[in-house]
């Protein structure tokens, strides 16, 4: 029997009369990487915000580690939604120290997460001077402070150069070996194909496909089939 850390059951989110997330049922296997694929505006970020509690679902359920999700579960969840919220006038260590104080964590955790993301040598450099890749890695370091079981990353490679993408890819791939389950969103098929163990394809708020990645399959063809099919389903529903 599969061991799932996170599942959603018929998860819905409406804004006014518009359904941004429509009966989505995700299944995240423990200690794996799940890639949530979809075009811009498909409902990826909304889904991740529902899982982190930033938004309240209109209907449906979120099951975390075998029980109904509650805000207490946030102690086991780390997230980087959209751009990392950094204090530009502070160093990497100082940014992390702000969060260890808020989370009542020992300062020793700062060096631990800096080593994980390979940023232990930034010294007195302020985060405003960091490259986009360094900012993303610092954002992930902040998300790792509380020893999360689940790490949620929203379009983590956006704006990165090829080197930054490669470094971040290798970092993300290392997390399951540390007991961290990852769900990340992206609209870049090739990137998810190299990182994820399982994928879900969402379009117009509908999850049209979910399965283990089968290497050798034409992911672009599958993606387009789901996106076009979901458009037709929404049109027929209307």
Automatic annotation (TrEMBL):
Gene3D superfamilies: P-loop containing nucleotide triphosphate hydrolases. It comes from the Bacteria. Residues 6-229 form the ABC transporter domain. Keywords: ATP-binding, Nucleotide-binding, Transport. GO terms for molecular function: ATP binding; ATP hydrolysis activity. Belongs to the ABC transporter superfamily. This is Lantibiotic protection ABC transporter ATP-binding subunit.
